[in-house]
Structures are given as structure tokens and as C-alpha cells.
């Protein structure tokens, strides 16, 4: 098929949901225990607060809550589930089978994948493949992370950046000319940068902030251009740019490189920080609920994360009558 061709079956977005822990940690709380200030954090990252899970609130809990919201209006559930996470509750077993069972979907295909903060886009591509091969007629893709647990609690350079949350999207088999149809997903990785973001266990995150910053801007801008081209779009066609919410300086640079005007860029980093694989679906759910994202908007998603990994995909936002305002309570 030629780039942008719109024939044949496709994975079509038919639901979106999100979940945030109840506990909110504003910058001022961090400056009590770390050598930092609200002004520094806001100026360097755009972050003012983040949600942090309680000790007994797991990645699985957040994933279940976001998934249940995304499945509103889907009484038959889905035929497969992909959970993208860097912070599973346990190394073994995977998160997804438990999430499926807690949703009443025991028996469906269920798998975790780890691609850092790009995990949700890798999940979308996986779901599109499951649909294209006829393996599943509908797939729930969840991004869920508890990244606030990863930094050394004494490290002022990383603690302010991260928050916890989950977001979920339902994909069903539809046709490529429908609203909500995913266009080709652009994905990439570069293991030469593996040591730029590492975490062997909670409390042990290490990050080369400045190098990560440069890679994030370059990779998200390049992937976005590729995804727009694959969809047959000019960058001036983009109504909504939805970049991974690493920090507002990174996303501003990406939008500037692409020439996407500030007002077309969606953001929630001020309120939630960097929520890893949850970042993009959490932002989609919030923006769809409050009207920043409307049916017909030509929408470009892009992400970057540890690995290094990156990705981007274009879709025209669908009409989702069941979109709910994100809940801010515990499951
Ligand atoms: N409060 C106050 N000062 C801080 C601080 C904090 N929270 N964190 C770092 N500093 C200090 C540093 O110690 C350094 O001080 P020094 O000059 O005396 O050594 C100074 O601020 C500048 O540090 P630097 O790391 O150069 O700042 P920066 O402008 O690069 O901003 C980040 C740091 C982390 C905000 C930035 O590098 C970044 O956003 N990187 C990408 C991180 C990211 O998004 N990762 C996930 C990608 S998925």
C-alpha cells in the first residue's frame, strides 16, 4: 500500500480510561525533605505536583481501574490485553493475566511488555498486529507505572520528575477509513543508550538527565515526522500533538522542531509529572473528557523512553460517547 492509503482492516480506538492515585504530592512537599524549590522544579520541568500510590496500591490496581473505565460501553469486554509497564508488581508472573481476571476476562490472551516510557506505543502496535492477524477482534492496551518508587528518595535530580498512574485504550477491528483508525506505528530503539536511564530495583534509578533530554527531543521529533508521513499528513495538518509527558521543556522543543503551534500541543505534566507508559493514555483520557481533544482532530502521539526506545503514530480522534472524567480515587 502507498503511504497514507486507507483501505483494509485496521485497529480502531473505541474506548479510553485512566486512573490516578488519590495521594497528591506538590513540589512544596519535596522541598521540605530535599535541597530543591518549587521554582526550580517548575522552571526546569513544568511539573507542579504528581500523584503517588499508597504503599498497598499496586500497578495492577491502577491498571484495573483505568481498564474498567476504558471498557465502559463494551459489555462483552475484549479478546486480548496488553499491559505496558516498567514497574510490574512482581518480576514473575506478568501483570496482564491478573488484570484480565480482575476485569472478569479470565481466559483471554494477556501479556506484559516493557519498553520504558514508549511502552504504550509498543502496546498499540502489538494490538494492531493481533487485530490484523485475526488473533483478536478487540484488544485493551494499558500503560501503568509506579515510577515515583524508582528514584533514590534522597536524589533531588530525579525525585521531582516522576509520578504514578495508568491509562487504557480499547482497540477493535474496524476499517482504515473510520475515525479512530491507527495509521502505521513508527517504532525504534538504540541499545547504545541503555545506560542513560537504568533502574535495577526501586530506589536505584540512575539517569543522565542532559543526554536523555537531547535524545528525547531528537527521537520524538523524527518519529513524529515519520508517522505523519506514513499517514499521508503534512505536519501542518496536525490538530493535536500528544507527546510523552517527560517534562514541558522537552515537549516544547519537540513541538518547536516540528513547527506545531503551542496551542495544538496537549499537556498534563504540570499535574501528574512523568508517569511512564501511562503518560500518553492518561493524557488522551483527560483531554477527551474535558474537550481539548475532539472527534475529528488529527492527532499525533509520540513517546521516548529508557532502552532507548521511541515511537509515534497518527490517528484521527474518534467520537467516544462513554468517555468519563478521570477518577481521582483509589480502586
Ligand atoms: N533542585 C535544585 N537544583 C537541582 C535539582 C533540583 N531538583 N536537580 C538538579 N539540580 C541542580 C544540579 O545539581 C546542578 O547543579 P550544579 O550546577 O551545581 O551541579 C544544576 O541544578 C543543573 O543541573 P542539570 O542536570 O544540568 O539541570 P538540567 O537543566 O539538565 O535539568 C533535568 C535537569 C533532569 C530536569 C533535565 O536534564 C531533564 O529534564 N532531563 C530529561 C529527564 C527526563 O525527562 N527523563 C525521562 C525521559 S523518558
The total of helices stands at 9
Q: What is the distance, rounded to the nearest whole angstrom, between the alpha carbons of the first and last residues?
A: 44 Å
Strand order of the largest sheet: 1-7-6-4-5
> How much β-strand is present in the residues?
15-25%
Helical residues, percent: 25-40%
Bound molecules: coenzyme A
Poorly predicted regions are 327-331
Indicate the mean pLDDT: 94
Count the strands? 13
CATH topology label: Peroxisomal Thiolase, Chain A, domain 1
The main sheet comes to:
5 strands, mixed
CATH superfamily: Thiolase/Chalcone synthase
Kindly name the structural category: alpha/beta
Under CATH at level 1, the class stands as Alpha Beta
Using only C-alpha atoms, the radius of gyration works out to 18 Å
Please tell me what the overall shape is: globular
The assigned CATH architecture is 3-Layer(aba) Sandwich
Overview of the molecule:
The protein has 331 residues and is α/β, with parallel strands linked by helices. The chain has a single domain (1-325), classed as 3-Layer(aba) Sandwich (Peroxisomal Thiolase, Chain A, domain 1), CATH 3.40.47. It is built from nine helices and 13 strands. It has helices at residues 27-33, 38-45, 59-70, 96-102, 119-132, 209-230, 248-258, 269-272, 279-290; strands at residues 9-19, 24-26, 49-51, 80-84, 109-113, 138-146, 164-175, 186-189, 197-198, 206-207, 240-243, 298-305, 309-316. A five-stranded mixed beta sheet has the order 1-7-6-4-5, sandwiched between helices. It has a four-stranded mixed beta sheet with strand order 8-13-12-11, with helices on both faces. A hairpin with a 7-residue loop joins strand 9 and strand 10. Helix 3 crosses helix 4. The protein is globular and about 55 Å long. It starts with 8 loop residues before the first strand and ends in a 15-residue tail after the last strand. The site of coenzyme A has 22 residues, from helix 2, helix 6 and strand 12. Residues 36, 40-41, 44-45, 117, 156-157, 160-161, 207, 209-210, 212-213, 216, 246-247, 250, 274, 304-305 line the site of coenzyme A (COA).
